User: Fold these one by one.
Assistant:
Number 1:
Amino acid sequence: MSSILDNKAIVGRWFTEFWGNPWNAKIIDELAAPDMLLQYSLHAPRKGRDDVRAFMTGFRATFPDLGFTGAADLIAEGDYVVGRWVGGGTNTGAAFSDFLAGSLPAATGRKMHFTGATVLKVVNGRIAEEIGLDDGVTALTQLGLIRRS
C-alpha cells in the first residue's frame, strides 16, 4: 500500500501531465490502472486506459488549449486523494460529441472556464478511479449547449 505522500505525488503528476497543457499521453500507461474509471458529470464514464486515452485525445482535438490546474492543496486519506481545480479551453478544433448535453460543432471559438473537485483512488501506485464533480452548467452555458432561463 502506498503512503499518503506517495499517493499525493502520483495525483499531482496526473493533474499536471494528464490535465495540464501540454499534456503527456504516456502518463496514462504510466499512472493509470489498466481498468481505470474516469467519471465526470459532463461526459459518459470511461473505463480502461484505451477508453481514457480516446476521450482525452478527442477532448484536446476540440480544445487544443485545454488545461486545468489545482485550486487548492491536495487532501489525502488512505487510498483517496481529493483535489479542487480550475480550467477550461477554447473550441478552435474538431467537433465534439462527448458532452451528455449535446454535440459541439467544430471551431466555434467559444471558451469554457469552470471549476470542480475530484476524488481519486490510488491502488498499488496506480490511479484506479477518478470521479469528479464539475460546474458543468457553467461550461455548457458558455459553450452554448444549454441556456439559463
Note: The longest strand covers residues 111-123.
Number 2:
Amino acid sequence: MPKIKHIMQYKRILLKLSGESLMGENQYGIDPKRLSEYAQEIKAIVDRGIEVAIVIGGGNIFRGVAGASNGMDRVQGDYMGMLATCINGLALQSAIESAGVSTRLQTAIKMEQVAEPFIKRKAVRHLEKGRVVIFGAGTGNPYFTTDTAAVLRAIEVSADVILKGTRVDGIYSADPEKDPNATKYDTITYQSVLDKGLKIMDLTAFTLSQENNLPIIVFDMDTEGNLQKLLSGNKIGTVVSDKE
C-alpha cells in the first residue's frame, strides 16, 4: 500500500455513496434496512473522532441521463436527478440522527425549509464540531455528476481522502461480475487508471481529483464493518493516488 498517508491519519473523509446502494434488495427506492446499516457504520467512525462528509447519488429514484435518452430535456432531467439526491440526503440524515449522531444537510439548490444552502465555511465548522455533513443536489449544475460533486466538495472542505463505496471490493482489470479472470488492483496510479481505460468515476471528477492530488479508495460498502476496517488500516479496496 502506498505511503500517501497512513489511513489511521485520515482526520476528515468524504464518503461517496451511490443512490442505487440505498435500494438494498429492492428494485428501486430506499431500503430502510440498508439505510440503518449505513447509519451504524457511519456512527462507528464518527465515534472514533473522524470527521465525515457525504455525497450521495440519486439513481435509485431518477437519473437525468436515462431521462434524456427517453426524449426528456437533459437539463430538466439533471435537475430532477439533483432533487432525487436531496430526497436520499434527507433519508440518510434521518437514519444517522436516529443512530445518535448530529448532522447537517447542505444543498447546492436552495430549499431553506429542509436544508442549509452550501456554504464552505459553515460546512467546515460543522465538521469541526463532529457533525456529519451531507451534501445534496450535486454541484447545482446540469451535466455534472455526483462523482464530480463529491470531488469538488472534498477539495472545498479539505478532506484527506475520498472513500467511494460500491458493491465491488475494489478496482479490477475488467468487470469481475462478467469476467472471472479479472484481477484486482490493491494500488494504482491516476495515470494507470487513464491508460487502462478503467471506469472509476467520470473523467471530469477523476481529473479534478488527480489535479488536486486527492486520493480515492474504492471499496465494498455493503459488507458490514468494511468502513471501520478500512479506517483502521486494513487493506480493503483499491487505493488510487499518484504513487504505485
Note: The radius of gyration is 17 Å.
